[in-house]
């Protein structure tokens, strides 16, 4: 299903590039809202916007896009970055309020502004940018989604650079490396900044050129869906959790707003209950102990941890692009990670048994 959605999203983004020339030069007009009230293009006059479309229960592309923008902003010279406002426009207002949207974008960085509104008001903005979004239920297009419907959301995936005059300046693929996004945005707007200075040239080291980490001498097949980690991260660096003390440990990151997480937790609960080879540590991102306790009581989760961490930066440090996310540690050092839901635990047990031998 995820592969199908990815293909659909990429297809949707393709024609937007050709639409760009037709809409450049015409100022955007919109009337949306954030958690503080109504926002229009006038509220962003004099600022550059890095804008993306998405929704709060998006399992992969939206979190990845927000993480890319956030990391790029950190790489842009300060006198340029302070003129940029990162904006996330919600295209599924049925399932999000301005308040929940604000909480969602705050997971990534407090600089983000989350905008939402009626479907028609969002459609007005996407039409001006040549973007696309919609909903499907049972494989058919859904015109009027309602709360409680189990529909699928699809949308364009580009990142838009909007000028201080509300005109489109450029678009970028959501898969662009943060370093490249930072460089392109800096090149586009630095000459127009009042306190202009020569942008610092940063050395960009491609991941493909980094020195590959050696696998452990004992070649144990990684669990299904996991990839080798090259972060060098140690479990002891996370003050919010307590190690299980086992040689092999699984760190699961989740949040209440993440629907796939809620499907995955029962699987991990049963696995932790019966597994003697692998420790399982569950770490919630920013929901708070009271909400976690209420949820665990409702689900009768008595074996999972209620550890919580306030922001999404830890996710990126471990190689994550969205939730749910799982990281494998051996002797306290990260060896692998998986973006997406864990559906089976047999391969986890086999890996732990192999490492223990």
UniProtKB/TrEMBL annotation:
Binding residues for Cu cation: 58, 62, 155
Residues covered by the Thioredoxin domain: 8-190, 229-357
PROSITE patterns, A to Z: THIOREDOXIN_1, THIOREDOXIN_2
CDD domains in UniProt: SCO, TlpA_like_family
GO terms for MF: disulfide oxidoreductase activity; metal ion binding
InterPro entries listed in its UniProt record: SCO1/SenC, Thioredoxin-like_sf, Thioredoxin_CS, Thioredoxin_domain
Disulfide bridge map: 58-62
UniProtKB keywords: Copper, Disulfide bond, Metal-binding, Redox-active center, Signal
Pfam families: SCO1-SenC
Signal peptide positions on this chain: 1-19
UniProt record similarity statement: Belongs to the SCO1/2 family.
UniProt-recorded name of the protein: Cytochrome oxidase biogenesis protein Sco1/SenC/PrrC
């Amino acid at each position: 299903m995820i592969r199908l959605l990815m293909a659909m999203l990429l297809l949707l983004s393709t024609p937007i590039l050709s639409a760009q020339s037709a809409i450049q030069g015409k100022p955007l007009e919109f009337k949306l809202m954030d958690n503080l009230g109504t926002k229009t293009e006038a509220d962003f006059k004099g600022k550059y916007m890095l804008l993306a479309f998405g929704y709060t229960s998006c399992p992969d592309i939206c979190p990845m896009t927000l993480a890319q923008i956030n990391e790029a902003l950190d790489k842009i010279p300060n006198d340029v970055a302070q003129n940029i406002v990162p904006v996330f426009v919600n295209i599924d207002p049925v399932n999000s309020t301005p308040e929940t949207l604000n909480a969602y974008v705050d997971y990534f960085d407090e600089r983000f502004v989350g905008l939402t509104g009626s479907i028609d008001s969002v459609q007005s903005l996407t039409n001006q940018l040549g973007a696309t979004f919609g909903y499907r239920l049972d494989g058919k297009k859904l015109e009027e989604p309602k709360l409680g419907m189990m529909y699928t959301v699809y949308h364009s995936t580009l990142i838009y650079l909007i000028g201080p005059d509300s005109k489109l300046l450029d678009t970028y693929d959501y898969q662009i490396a943060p370093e490249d996004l930072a460089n392109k945005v800096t090149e586009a707007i630095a000459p127009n900044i009042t306190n202009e200075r020569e942008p610092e040239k940063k050395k960009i080291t491609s991941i493909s050129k980094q020195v590959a980490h050696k696998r452990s001498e004992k070649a144990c097949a990684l669990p299904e869906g996991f990839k080798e980690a090259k972060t060098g991260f140690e479990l002891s660096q996370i003050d919010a959790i307590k190690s299980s003390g086992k040689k092999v440990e699984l760190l699961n990151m989740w949040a209440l707003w993440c629907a796939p997480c809620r499907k995955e937790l029962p699987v991990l609960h049963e696995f932790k209950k019966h597994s003697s080879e692998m420790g399982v540590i569950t770490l919630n991102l920013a929901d708070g102990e009271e909400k976690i306790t209420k949820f665990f009581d409702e689900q009768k989760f008595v074996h999972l941890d209620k550890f919580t961490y306030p922001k999404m930066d830890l996710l990126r440090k471990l190689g994550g692009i969205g939730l749910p996310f799982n990281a494998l540690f051996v002797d306290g050092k990260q060896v692998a990670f998986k973006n997406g839901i864990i559906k089976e635990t047999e391969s986890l047990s086999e890996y732990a048994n192999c490492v223990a031998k």
